[in-house]
């Protein structure tokens, strides 16, 4: 039997970046609970006509659970929207524990996270052959802590690509950690604000300069920093290199000559 509760990734803001499954579930929901400041109206407008729409911003965990439970007990279908992807910086685990305690089944539907959306909008991949093959998704410690072993300086020391969430209000602190970890001040930092929204802003800066850009633009929330050491590296992957053999193609004898794409 299909669960009556679905935690659904709402993506970064563009309703066309919802999965087909997410759109289908919204269209049959009797109750939609969403984080108001993080969910454009265009997304909640995809709910079934007559659906009850609740903004969770002013609600406690217990209040959202009560609304879900009451709807399910009345035979209804619930979509709990989560900004971006439910696996990142969401509250699915604590909500799910309450459902499980009452024997209410649920499912989770992934969504496009801001790091992926920003990389696509900027047309800059996070990874680059021979430069970085790792993308770390993290955040700066603030009102809510992070484990000491995962502090930004320690992670930045790997010199991999970084997606720094939930830190736009402290850009100078982010810069300090990146520089202390040994990042070149000229390393590219992409600043992505409200990716997928009509008011989207995308900027390319550097470790040295991005805090001033953030302050000048007033980007205090819903802003992601992508630290991109592989940007403009110009390296080429092996997969389509004619000199590189793999299971679907042998190395070519003419690999030393320029060949058309």
UniProtKB/TrEMBL annotation:
PROSITE patterns xrefs: SUMT_1, SUMT_2
CDD domains the UniProt entry points to: Precorrin-4_C11-MT
EC class (word): transferase
Domain of life of the source: Bacteria
UniProt-listed InterPro entries: 4pyrrol_Mease, 4pyrrol_Methylase_sf, 4pyrrole_Mease_sub1, 4pyrrole_Mease_sub2, Cbl_synth_CobM/CibF, Siro_Cobalamin_biosynth, Uropor_MeTrfase_CS
All copies of domain Tetrapyrrole methylase, residue ranges: 4-209
One Gene Ontology term of the molecular function aspect: precorrin-4 C11-methyltransferase activity
Keywords assigned by UniProt, alphabetized: Cobalamin biosynthesis, Methyltransferase, S-adenosyl-L-methionine, Transferase
Name of the protein described by the UniProt record: Cobalt-precorrin-4 C(11)-methyltransferase
The species this protein was found in: Fundidesulfovibrio magnetotacticus
């Amino acid at each position: 039997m299909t669960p009556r509760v679905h935690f659904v990734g709402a993506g970064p803001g563009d309703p066309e970046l919802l999965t087909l499954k997410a759109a289908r579930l919204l269209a049959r929901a009797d109750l939609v609970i969403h984080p108001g400041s993080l969910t454009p109206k265009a997304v909640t407008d995809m709910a079934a006509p007559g659906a009850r729409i609740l903004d969770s911003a002013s609600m406690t965990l217990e209040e959202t659970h009560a609304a879900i439970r009451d709807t399910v007990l009345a035979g209804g279908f619930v979509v709990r929207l989560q900004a971006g992807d439910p696996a990142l910086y969401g509250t699915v685990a604590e909500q799910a524990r309450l459902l499980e305690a009452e024997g209410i089944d649920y499912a989770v539907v992934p969504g496009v996270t801001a790091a992926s959306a920003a990389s696509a909008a900027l047309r800059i991949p996070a990874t680059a052959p021979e430069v970085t093959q790792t993308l770390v998704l993290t955040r700066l410690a603030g009102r809510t802590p992070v484990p000491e072993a995962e502090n930004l300086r320690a992670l930045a020391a790997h010199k991999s690509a970084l997606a720094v969430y939930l830190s736009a209000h402290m850009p100078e602190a982010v810069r300090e950690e990146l520089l202390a970890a040994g990042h070149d001040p000229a390393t590219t930092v992409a600043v992505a604000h409200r990716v997928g929204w009509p008011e989207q802003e995308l900027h390319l800066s550097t470790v040295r300069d991005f805090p001033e850009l953030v302050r000048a633009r007033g980007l205090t929330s819903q802003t992601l920093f992508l630290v991109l050491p592989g940007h403009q590296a110009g390296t080429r992957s092996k997969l389509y290199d004619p000199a590189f053999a793999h299971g679907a193609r042998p190395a070519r004898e003419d690999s030393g000559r320029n060949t058309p794409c």
